[in-house]
């Protein structure tokens, strides 16, 4: 069923869904403080904020999993709502079909009803060919789409989605949005949290949280219009220039907020900021005049222990053990603190810190990495990009010796990627590599003993929870801890696997400041990311698709040979549905629609068939467009252009 088809369904009768003035506390920590939100039927309502802002707690109140200490809640019963947790809610040891059957039965659906509804949903989610795959073998994007299918399987009136697109590649995010907008068009009330503000900009209403408090609410346009002062672009400067406290990175540029208006000489005011700039400015305003909730901080509720959550815990713990075991040796000389770095040692290969030649890795009949060659030099930032399942994480693990290639070679600092070489690098895996069942302080002590250097210097937010169990401090602080531990011994090479996933925009900008600082000191960095705006900050980009390296270079190098069309319409949702139904490769940037690799006349024809008025213009292509074409047509002209 298309999004258009969904809109033609009989309108549901959904009662009012809202919370009014609710507060939630966990011990001494206030997770939500006087929060109100209405979730109307037939519309997507987005909740945004960084890790620890209170998003998951708010969604779990609506899902009847947490009872607030104050305020009023109007929501639906379990039989009328569908809930997708941040962990996707997929059981890793069950196949896709078994997941569907199990969840359907848990909702009381008859076998016949499951058989009638499931094939259509799996087809719409692009999972029809993956029915017999185990949940743990799905890519991140496929797993999140399956989680969405499980949440809407029983046709609920309220659909609650906790960051369904976090860690998902841009191609899969568009597919997820198509599914989400389709269920809303069918009359359901949709409440979703997201860290991608271009997604929030498409929602009918947005609630922005920071440390458990509301900093903005309303439509995206209303929030943008309500930002006081001026947001401007700062003059271009080198990485050695420190970012001012009122500024943040946006791609290769720096933006800054001036609360009193009047940008200084050299800064160019932005006529119409986007939602990301607006919320960063509002966050800076709130934090410059703090009114901290009781307890001095925020936290999300502890996760429930269904199998999907437990699997995530085991994966993180296993990664930590593997990482620690691989590096463990008798303590060497104390490492130089990051605040006073020594000049990195040069390996036999000169400035090359990590190198792969023809690296190949196969799992069963699946070629995860195919003949991959790539080097990382001192002082550069290499961005590894590609859709979920492209092979990025597998390649990183081979590069540092946590997995052995079936063919080809990898090297660290000119030698084998053994435990001694790994002592000279810092690694932040997707699972963060932390021991979640022990205290923050104990994780710091463990890292200190492994590397034989000084203890990690923790930021203030982590000092406040130094004696807390890691699993209880929230994902945002866990990510900060993983980063601090990776930097604690002054590594010569940083290996970062999606280090900013799920982090709020201001925190992402600050993490990139640290990454650039390390590169400026002569350290090499290789990083994977799904925020393709971040890719512009890298010295070089390496684009992977289906295990193969398709090209290395700048954004312009990788998008050469790709064409794109920008579509702007007051009827953007109808235009998006029409272009998708016509089979055109569409992407969304806020409410702007982009179509890759298709002539403008074809786009106009698809819109005219639905009598949709829109401005259609040829524009410079983006990395997202290239990835869409590669995802749709491997071996196509787009792939050849990138590889050439």
Automatic annotation (TrEMBL):
Q: Where does the record place the region Disordered?
A: 287-355
Top-level division of the source organism's lineage: Bacteria
Q: Specify residue ranges for compositional bias: Basic and acidic residues.
A: 303-322
Annotated signal sequence is none
Family matches, as PROSITE patterns: ABC_TRANSPORTER_1 (PS00211), ABC_TRANSPORTER_2 (PS50893)
Instruction: Outline the extent of the ABC transporter domain.
Output: 17-236, 354-571
Gene3D superfamilies given in the database record: P-loop containing nucleotide triphosphate hydrolases
**Which GO terms fall under molecular function for this chain's record?**
ATP binding
CDD domains per UniProt:
ABC_DR_subfamily_A (cd03230)
Sorted alphabetically, the keyword list is: ATP-binding, Nucleotide-binding
Tell me what this protein is called.
ATP-binding cassette domain-containing protein
Species, as recorded: Agromyces tropicus
* Taxonomic lineage: Bacteria, Bacillati, Actinomycetota, Actinomycetes, Micrococcales
């Amino acid at each position: 069923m298309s999004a258009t088809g969904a809109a033609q369904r009989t309108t549901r009768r959904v009662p009012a869904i809202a919370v009014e003035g609710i507060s939630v506390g966990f011990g001494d920590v206030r997770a939500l403080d006087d929060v109100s939100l209405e979730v109307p039927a037939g519309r997507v309502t987005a909740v945004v904020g960084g890790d620890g802002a209170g998003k998951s707690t708010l969604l779990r109140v609506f899902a009847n999993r947490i009872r607030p200490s104050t305020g009023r809640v109007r929501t639906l019963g379990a039989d009328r709502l569908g809930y997708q947790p941040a962990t996707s809610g997929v059981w890793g040891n069950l196949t896709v079909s078994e997941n569907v059957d199990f969840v359907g039965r848990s909702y009381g659906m008859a076998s016949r009803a499951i058989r009638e509804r499931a094939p259509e949903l799996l087809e719409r989610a692009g999972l029809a060919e993956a029915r017999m795959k185990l949940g743990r073998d799905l890519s991140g994007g496929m797993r999140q789409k399956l989680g969405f299918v499980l949440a809407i399987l029983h046709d609920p009136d309220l659909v609650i989605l906790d960051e369904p697109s976090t860690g998902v590649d841009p191609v899969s995010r568009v597919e997820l949005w198509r599914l989400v907008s389709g269920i809303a068009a069918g009359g359901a009330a949709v409440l979703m949290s997201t860290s991608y503000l271009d997604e929030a900009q498409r929602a009918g209403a947005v609630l922005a949280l920071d440390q458990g408090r509301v900093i903005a609410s309303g439509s995206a346009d209303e929030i943008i219009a309500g930002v006081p002062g001026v947001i401007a672009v700062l003059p271009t400067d080198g990485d050695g220039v420190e970012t001012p406290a009122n500024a943040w990175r946006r791609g290769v540029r720096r933006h800054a907020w001036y609360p009193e208006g009047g940008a200084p000489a050299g800064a160019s005011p932005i006529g119409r900021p986007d939602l990301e700039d607006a919320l960063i400015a509002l966050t800076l305003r709130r934090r410059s005049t703090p009114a901290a909730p009781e307890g001095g901080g925020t936290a999300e509720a502890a996760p429930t222990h269904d199998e999907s959550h437990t699997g995530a815990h085991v994966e993180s713990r296993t990664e930590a053990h593997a990482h620690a075991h691989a590096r463990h040796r008798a303590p060497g000389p104390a490492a130089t603190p990051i605040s006073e770095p020594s000049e990195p040692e040069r390996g036999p290969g000169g400035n090359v810190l990590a190198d792969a030649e023809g690296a190949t890795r196969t799992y069963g009949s699946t070629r995860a990495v195919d003949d991959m060659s790539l080097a990382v030099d001192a002082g550069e930032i290499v961005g590894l990009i590609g859709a979920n399942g492209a092979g990025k994480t597998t390649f990183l693990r081979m590069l540092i010796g946590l997995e052995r290639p079936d063919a080809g070679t990898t090297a660290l600092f000119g030698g084998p990627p053994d435990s001694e070489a790994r002592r000279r690098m810092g690694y932040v895996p997707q699972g963060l590599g932390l021991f979640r069942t022990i205290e923050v302080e104990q994780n710091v002590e463990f890292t200190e003993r492994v590397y034989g250097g000084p203890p990690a210097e923790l930021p203030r937010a982590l000092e406040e929870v130094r004696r807390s169990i890691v699993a209880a401090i929230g994902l945002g602080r866990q990510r900060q801890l993983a980063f601090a531990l990776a930097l604690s011994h002054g590594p010569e090479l940083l290996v970062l696997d999606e280090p900013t996933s799920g982090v709020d925009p201001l925190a992402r900008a600050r993490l990139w400041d640290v990454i650039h600082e390390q590169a400026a000191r002569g350290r090499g960095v290789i990083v994977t990311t799904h925020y393709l705006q971040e890719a512009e900050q890298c010295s070089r980009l390496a684009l992977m698709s289906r295990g193969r390296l398709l090209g290395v270079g700048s954004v312009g190098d990788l998008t050469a040979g790709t064409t794109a069309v920008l579509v702007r319409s007051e009827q953007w949702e109808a235009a998006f549905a029409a272009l998708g139904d016509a089979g055109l490769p569409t992407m969304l940037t806020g409410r702007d629609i982009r179509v890759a690799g298709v002539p403008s006349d074809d786009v106009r024809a698809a819109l005219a068939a639905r009598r949709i008025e829109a401005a259609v213009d040829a524009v410079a292509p983006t990395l997202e467009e290239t990835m869409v074409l590669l995802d749709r047509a491997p071996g196509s002209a787009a792939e050849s252009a990138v590889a050439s």
